[in-house]
Amino acid sequence: MHDCKLFSPQFATFLTQLAYAKHRQLLLITGEQNWCYQQANELYQQLNPTLCKVLSNNDDLTNSSWPKHTHQILGQEFQHVIYDGFSGLVPDKLAALSGTVQAGGLFILLLPELADLQHWCDPALETFQSFAQQRQHSYFNQRLARLLSDNSLPHFNQTSGWQRLPKVSPKAGVISLIEQQYCIEQIIKTATGRANRPLLISADRGRGKSAALGFAAAKLSGKDIIICSQQFSALHSSFKHFADEQGIDYQAPQKQLANLRYIAPDQLLSELPQCDVLLVDEAAAIPVPMLIKMLDHYPRVVFASTMIGYEGNGRGYTLRFRRYLETHFKNMRSVNLEQPIRFAAADPLEQHICKLLALDADYKNTELDSATLQFTELKAAELASDETLLRQVIGLLSLAHYQTSVNDLRHLLDATAQRIFACQQRNTLIGVCLIAIEGGLNTVISKQIASGQRRPQGHLMAQTLAQLTVEPSILSLNCARVVRIAIAPSQHNNKIGSKLLAHCEQQLATTCHWFGASFGANASLLRFWQTAGFNLIKLGFKQDKATAEHAALVLKSLSHDNTLNDQLKNEFQADFALQLLDHFNQLDTQLVEQILTAFIPQHIDCHLDRRLKSLLTTDYQLHAIKPLLWRTLWCTPSSLFNCDENTKCLFIRLILQNWSPQKAQAALQINGNKSLNKQFKQVVAKWYEQYLLKKLP
User: Fold this and answer.
1) 521 to each of 103, 341, 487, 526, how far by Cα in Å?
2) DSSP secondary structure code for residue 78 in this structure
3) pTM confidence score
C-alpha cells in the first residue's frame, strides 16, 4: 500500500542519506494545483524555512517570489528550493535555481499529472510563441513528461502517493579540492609572474571557480586587485571566501574589502584604473571586444566563466576567445575545473537538470566522405521524441553561436511558425537552419504596427519592413527570417552553409514573399550573406550587449517582384553616408569596406573631378581636401577596394567617418600632425591611382 504522506519516516531517512552522500536531488510532486501547493507548504515548514527558496508568482505558496531576470537568482545558495511549475516552465529559471541548491538539498518541482503535461495550459508557453501564432500543444512539455518518468527520480503523486523513493549511495560523499587548489596556484602565478600571460578558467557550475578567485585574492594581500563581472551579485562567493580567508567581516553588498575591489566592465574600460592584477568573472557574458581591450591595458588578467548555459553563454565564446588568446599570447594558460566542490561527484540533481534541459548536449565534429549530402526538414514532434537527434541539433547550435540561452531549447520545440532545415550525411547532422515564418497579420494590427502604435511579440523582420516603408500591407504577407544557421566547424570552408540556404530558399519560395536574416554585423558574416544574394537594408544604431556588434538586417526577394528589396537597399545606401559621420563613426573599418562593396558607383561631376585634380598638385591641407575626397569617394567607393589596409583605414576614419586628426593619431598610433599629414598625402596618392581606374566616364 502506498504511503500517502509526503514527509514520512522513509522520506526523513532519505534526506539524511542524501546529506551523508553530499548529493542533491530533484523531487517531483504532481497533482492538482491546490493539492501540490498544500504539500509544498507543509514540506516548507518541515524543512528549514530560513534556508529555503520558493519560486512562484502565486501568493498561495509561502514566501514565494518570481524574479524577472535570471541573474537575480544566481550567486545565492539555499538548502532546498521549490519551483512552481504552475507559474510556467521557464528553462532559464529552472537551470539557474538548480545551481543554488547546497549539498544534501532538494529541488522540489510542482507539476500537473505527467500524462496531462503536453496539453496543459502552461502560462509560459505563449512567451515562446509569436503573436497570432499560438498553439496549446507543447512539445517541450511532452518531452519533459517522458524524461520525468525516469525511475531514478523521487516522485510523490496525488492519487498514488510515493511512486518511488530511490536509494542513495551508502558511501560518505567525498569532495576533492585538488583541482581548485591547482587553479588558485595558477591565479597566483599569473598575478606574480611575468606579464602578458593571461589565464583562462572554464568550469561548470558548482566547481568553485568564483571561490577560487576569492581565495587567490586573499593570498595576494600585497597586490592591488580589481575584480569585475557584468553582475555584481555573481561575485558574492568571491568576496565571501576572500573575507573568510583573511578573517574579516563581509556584509553583502560591500564592493571593496582590503585590497580587493569591484568595478563594472564598462566603468573599468572608461576610467582604466591602475591595479596589479585584474580578475574577470563570468567573462563569457562580456563582449569579446571588451575583453580584448582589457588585455590591451592590463598585463596580468585572469578570465573565468561558467560553461554550461546557466549564464546564457554559448560554447562559441570559448572557441572565439581562446583562439584570440592563443594567437596573440603564446604563453597563455588555461584551467578547466571538472570536479564539483559544492557537492559530491555524480550529483543526481545536476544529472537530471542536464538531461531535462540538454545542457550537456555536445556536438561531435565529423569529417565528410563521398556519400551524398541530404537536405531535409525536421519537425518539432520528431525532435521531441528523438533524443539523439535533438542533442545533435542543440549541440551544434551551442557550438556555433556566440550567445545561447537555456530557453533556446523551448524555443526550438515550441515556436509554432518555425521551420527547421538540416544537412545530413549518413544520419550525421552537418548543418542546421532555424527559420521563423512571419507576417500573415490582419489589417487592423498591421496598421497599428506600421504607425508605431504596437509592437507585438515576434515577427521581427516583418515589423521592421513595415516600419521602414510605413506600408501596413507588408504585414499581411508571409516572410521567412533565418533565426540561426550553424555548420559543423570542420565544414566551414566547404560551402555547406550556402547549399543549406539555397535549399531553404527553394522550399520557402511558394509560401513566402521575402527571405532575410538578422545578425551581429561583422565583415565576414556580411560577406557570406551578400555572396548568397542578400542585400543589407538596415543596420541597428545600438550595439548588442553581448557581442558589441550592430544588428544587420539582410533581405532578398522570393518572388519576381524586387520593388521592395530595391527600394530598401537604395534607401539604406543613401542614408549610410550621413550615418557614418554620426551613429556609425566607430564602426569597424573592415565592416565599412564590406558594406561599400554593394554600393553602385555614380557619375562624377566634371567640375568636381577638375577641382580634385588641381588641388592634388598643390601642398594641400587635410581640412581643405576632405570635402572633395568625401564626395568623390561616395561616387566611386570601389576605388578603395584595391588599396592597401593602411590607405583604407586612414580614408575611412578621416574622410568617411570624419575623425579629428587628434583622434586618428591616438587610435592609429601616429606621432603628431606632421607625421599624420605625411602619411595622409601618401595614401591619397595611392588611392588616386585606383580612382582614375575606377571612375565612370
Assistant:
1) 44, 40, 18, 6
2) B
3) 0.89
